[in-house]
Write a structure and sequence with these properties.
The longest helix has 67 residues, at 156-222. Helix 5 runs antiparallel to helix 6 (156-222), helix 10 runs antiparallel to helix 11 (364-430) and helix 11 runs antiparallel to helix 12 (436-471). The chain is built from twelve helices and six strands. Helices cover 62% and strands 11% of the residues. It is an alpha+beta fold.
Amino acid sequence: MAHLFKNSMKTLSSAPLVLLCTALSLLLSSCAFYPRDSLPEQAVTPMELVEPKVDQQAKLVQDLWWTVFEDPQLNQLVTLSLRSSPSLEISGARIVAAQAMLDTETAAFLPQIGVGGQVDRQQLSQNYIFLPSFPVYTGYGLVNASLNWSLDIWGKQKKYFDAAKNQVKAVRANYQASALLLSTTVVRVYFDYDRAVQMQTLYAKDVELKKNLYQIALDRQKVGIADATLVNQRKVDFEGAQANVSQAKLTVKIMQHQLAALAKEGPSWGEALKPPILQANALNLPETIPANLLERRPDLQALLSQIDVAKLQLEGAKLEYLPDVNLAGFFGFQSFGLSQLFASKSQQFSIGPAINLPIFDGGLIAANITSKEAGRNQAIATYQEQLVQALREVADGISSMKSSQANYESYTKAFQSAKTNYDITQRRSDVGINSKESVLNAEQAYIVQGQNYADAKAKMLTANVVLVQALGGSYLRTTAQSH
């Protein structure tokens, strides 16, 4: 131990020499330190400058946006789809990989300690460095512990570490984008399923109606008050209605199978789905684009994180011109003759700074910096392009939602009016004022308006989903936030 203490004192006494070497390294690298950017940095344009009409005071919204339709079956479908989606499993694996890269960067801050050893039988060369007292054949032993610790005095490793952290944020945002895309897909298919079910019911009523009109035409033909043309037309209408029912049943089956596939279930599971019970209540649309909602779009968040990654990697690349200063050392035993391996005279010890300075690298560092500059500018340009696209999608979504909601309200009133006319005609027929044919005609008008109503409802609900996807989530306040 005394010998070890003496070696340590000798190492510490050489500290001025170490400082002199470091200063000389900085002097040699000063000619290449922080070169001027070959590619000027583009500025990130804030959202409020791209589109002044954004609502900066919009409140936060709920995450489970599909629950606003109050359909337990829809909630179950979305939950199952998010739980067992291959696309989300892929995104989750990317998160694990990014986290592993972050752990790799974290390890660079910690001292690396290893233990090694070697034992063998050697034949020494008698024509090289050879002591006469040594046997030609002798044993050789080596046991030591090594230390290598990057001091990161310039903060280069910290830049790469922060870049890895932002990369994790980016892949997590991409995971959220995948989840949003999957949930909107399930909900849109469910809306199509709802429309198909309603159409099947309406077409079934239409078949019965066309059958009755056809029978009336046949009865009139028998008494000579209807010609064959009318009878044939009624027959064509009846057969066409039957074809519509068959097509509607097929559409319902296809929608059920698609929903089952999204939930990772078999077709028979989908065929057991019940008719939807969606609540299409009036939706409070934002008058202006809510900035804080748009900013939370997962794809925009991922791109912003990629910008931070590119900038930090560029800053780290510039620090490559500076010398790496590590603390290196080892302690162990080495000897010829295994019997002397752990003797006090066989011990060896070393500790001190290790400096690595790039002077002539053939332009490798400069090329890497240029590449990082290009990557930074590309990330910024991609974000700006996606931001403009997102603003357009939200503006279009709000306009489409307002239009479809107005159409839905109009067709709702028309559907209710047709229902009222049908009820009045039915009551008059019951007391003998109107004929059965007039009742059927009123019912036919009622069914047509029902089809228009179902179409308008599906379009309004789909427009809602499109707007949700454009905003990165629901724009509706939760019950707690509405008070």
